[in-house]
Amino acid sequence: MILEVKKGKRFNEEFKVDADKSISHRCAIFSLLTNGENRIKNYLKAEDTLNSLEIAKKLGAEVKEENDEIIIKAPVKLKEPDDVLYCGNSGTTIRIFMGLLASNEGFFVLTGDEYLRRRPMKRVIAPLSEIGAKIDARENGNLAPIAIRGSKLKSFNYKSPIASAQVKSSLILAALHCDKPSFYEEPFLSRDHTERMLKGMGADIKEWKMENGECKIEITPLEKKLSPLKITVPNDPSSAFFFAVAAAITNSKAVLKNLTLNPTRIESFKQLEKMGAKVEYILKEDKYEPIGDIIVTGNKLKAITVENNIPWLIDELPALAMAMAVAEGKSIVKNAKELRVKESDRIKAVVENLKKCGIEAKELEDGYEITGGKVKEADINSYGDHRIAMSFAVLGLINGMKIEKAESIHTSFPGFFELFNKVAEYRIENGN
Ligand code: S3P
């Protein structure tokens, strides 16, 4: 699919973006640890999260939909599926399910699309193997397909070299089925939806933050099943951020409704504020997560350096790069090597495509430098990556843009196309 965006106009609009992807995945996966009916409102119906739900069904969950709720009832014991479990494009699905399945009796094979099959899985497979998991994968235990023979796991004390919520969540799920309490450490707090949700469901999880920013968690094994979830998934700040940038670069106003305001998720809005945009946060409720609206008003943008709190804005860096492309001066992003192993190599994808738009940009090993300038229309290769496709669609508001492989947008944000109508005219060609 080719998405051809026409130059946009100033706007003053309200956006109800789709539900949060991270929280939706966790609803599908954590429901399997409960003993009743999990009732989930506003579950994200995007390709990635529907794959998680489909896997829950293949493992024996009964899933039905009543009015606006998805109801998930877990089996007493997870079923050994008679086919491979397909995770599509989703790193969250494959990595978190690994931690759950490693301690479950049975044989499970996890795989995904051509992009997911290129992403590193050793970060989860290695620590799980150390505690007795029987897991194998291509390229010496690193790439999907991944085969798991569920077995008994030993409790652990693991210090992760990276701040990754996927690795952390996977190890927390494994720890829930170990014999004794386990400890997990990360160099910096990664998004903490897993801890918040599991604690809300009755799990015994304790957290400490050290002075140097490192975080430690103690996970006590489950003695009984968890209480079922009753949750309304908030909307996704990562999806909303595309419209925040749209407002920032066109001197417009975007009212972004019902987002999780979890600090580990809204750092990108803080950076946009530093660049000169006006940003207001309106807290409305606080259940598993703080939830509210964010209002972004465009203003003159100036360059910034982003080098701290990277795990809190890693998914939004490509969209933030679009604001950098029109800001005055040279912006720098550092300490963001993880960008290279996301749905695409996002350092390469951002820099290569910005250059096509006439913007001066340079790859660093762990980030990039972008000097704001005059953006021209270009043919963008999205590398099949949803966030690259949506970022450049937004940059198209300046002077138009043509984006290849834009069908990937359906992996996280199928509602994007309808909302994008509010800010620009566009055409879809079903080429390749
Ligand atoms: C996610 C964690 C992040 C993020 C991804 C979703 C999650 O990945 O980039 O889009 O839901 O746990 P890492 O934990 O690997 O950094």
Summarize the structure.
This protein is of the alpha/beta class.
List keywords for this structure.
432 residues; alpha/beta; UDP-n-acetylglucosamine1-carboxyvinyl-transferase, Chain; 2 domains; four-stranded mixed beta sheet; 26% strand; globular; binds shikimate-3-phosphate
What does this structure look like?
The chain folds into 2 domains: 2-19 and 234-429, UDP-n-acetylglucosamine1-carboxyvinyl-transferase, Chain; 21-232, Enolpyruvate transferase domain (UDP-n-acetylglucosamine1-carboxyvinyl-transferase, Chain), CATH 3.65.10.10. Helix content is 29%, strand content 26%. The chain has helices at residues 21-30, 47-58, 91-101, 122-130, 138-141, 165-175, 193-200, 237-249, 267-275, 317-326, 346-356, 386-399, 416-420, and strands spanning 2-5, 12-15, 37-41, 62-66, 69-73, 85-86, 107-111, 134-137, 143-149, 157-159, 182-186, 205-209, 215-219, 230-232, 253-260, 278-286, 290-297, 305-306, 330-333, 360-364, 367-371, 379-381, 401-404, 426-429. A 4-stranded mixed β-sheet has the order 22-23-1-24. Strands 2-15-17-16 form a 4-stranded mixed β-sheet, covered by helices on one side. Helix 10 packs parallel to helix 12 (386-399). It is globular and about 60 Å long. The model has no long low-confidence stretch (mean pLDDT 97).
